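Onboarding guide, step 5: your first structure request.
Type a short instruction followed by the sequence, for example:

Predict the 3D structure of this protein.
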Amino acid sequence: VQLQASGGGLVQAGGYLRLSCAATGFIFRNYGMGWFRQAPGKEREFVAAINWGSGSSTYYADSVKGRFTISRDNAKNTVYLQMNSLKPEDTAVYYCAATTTYGSSWYLLAPNYPYWGQGTQVTVSS
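The system replies with structure tokens like these:
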């Protein structure tokens, strides 16, 4: 199982970025996918998630709701995170993760995800 995150970079406040996470080594459509982030000195936090299959259900942290959009392309084994109206407080290393955990709030907790990508740095300047 391998997850390769990309698309991070330096952007001014109000700008946008699109993160990608390419998956190999497992049946992608069978896995729920999540994005987490970790800022310096802070714990890793949930950002967004999308359920398995067609991705008909999406979930967002309150801090990014209305600005970020998660989507998946099962034909390309890739999950995306479109980030608009970026703020300096969005600065962090962003990680994608995969899970087959299900149930209430399956997406929220990092320990529910057994597979993780290496992270991509997002820096938003003010």
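Each response can be followed by summary notes, for example: Residues 97 and 116 are 4 Å apart (CA to CA).
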